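Thread: Inositol-1-monophosphatase, structure

OP (GT): Posting the sequence first so everyone is looking at the same thing. Length is 261 residues per the record. Can we get the structure tokens written out before standup tomorrow? I want them in the notebook alongside the other entries.
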Amino acid sequence: MNSTDLIEAAETAARLGAKCLLDWVDEFRVSEKGRSDLVTDADFASQTAIVKHISERFPDHHMLGEEGLTHAEGESDYRWVIDPLDGTSNYVHGFPYYCVSIGLEHEGELVLGVVYDPNRDEMFSAFRGQGALLNGKPINTSRIPSLDQAMVVASLPVSTTGQDVAVDRFLRVLPEAQTLQRTGSAALNLCYVSAGRMEGYWSSNLKPWDMAAGVLICREAGGVVTSIEDASFTIETPSILATNGTNIHSELQTLLAGPLF
């Protein structure tokens, strides 16, 4: 299938979803899927707009999305993996670090990723083997070589306690990195690694829609993506370590995968 058609459809869908997010600002209602795990009217409106556009273009394609979206009828080799609002807590609090994330798999392999940040009008995109782009211009990871010079970011689970393994890992890295942050959007974190704005990102609690698009973008920008524990990786498992591909990757993996507590 033509990569240009697929990318154009994904980017258009992402913009349609993002328009819903902006239209719903100050109008949405919030509910909880679990403690501190929020969902809004905007999530559902964005997902509806995205699915409608993609379904009209590719009616036989499968889909997987955060807000209860599962469509796997027929024999298509394509599956869209959609997060209509990555960074819902940020969105609810008016913190402008959230996005729409749309990935595409073909025969189980990631082939396309689009992440759109409506607050900065930044469209990150990649197609397998064609490099990564930001608003149509090529991007690459930084070449910072060591953790003590690096800015890195972590995700912590919702409802985190002080005894959580993720907190222990965060505290291990804190004195070793130049800067360590928690920002609230996995997809944007992966894109920021891709664009050289940070050097590493990890999480042990992601879903496929959180990372599908960002993983491909990161790899196409020259980054390295594995699990925290070893070299394996799949979007179906929650563990991810993404870096600029320098020695920072092994430094973080040693710190994160060692004996806990």
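GT: Both are above now. Quick notes for whoever picks this up: The domain at 3-139 is CATH 3.30.540.10 (Fructose-1,6-Bisphosphatase; Chain A, domain 1). The radius of gyration is 17 Å.
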